[in-house]
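This week, look over our next protein:
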Amino acid sequence: MKGLPPALKEKKRYIAMKFIADREISKEELYEKLKEYLLELYGEFGYANFRIIQFKDNKGIISVKLRDLEKTKNAITLISDVNGTKVVPLILGVSGTIRSCRKKYLGGD
């Protein structure tokens, strides 16, 4: 059996972001911190599912469903420290495809 046709699939968005910090933040640390803020802000019923596509040199891309985009952006901007390290989060932009997100905001292909 085939999957859902494209018209019935939920649309995704890709958030390009960057963290200014004294040390390099790991993908796992970011995942746990973002999960913590989403649960704190929206609880279990309003929780937004996300996936970290790539994260290196404090820059990365997160995949979210279109309906959860604003929730996730809000949670990212509220992160102020990761395991005792002060950080400043910057959302570089939002795109509909990973390729254009990398090209526009992270300078790669």
User: Anything to note?
Assistant: The longest strand covers residues 85-95. Residues 27-42 form the longest helix (16 residues). The chain has three helices and five strands. The mean pLDDT is 92.
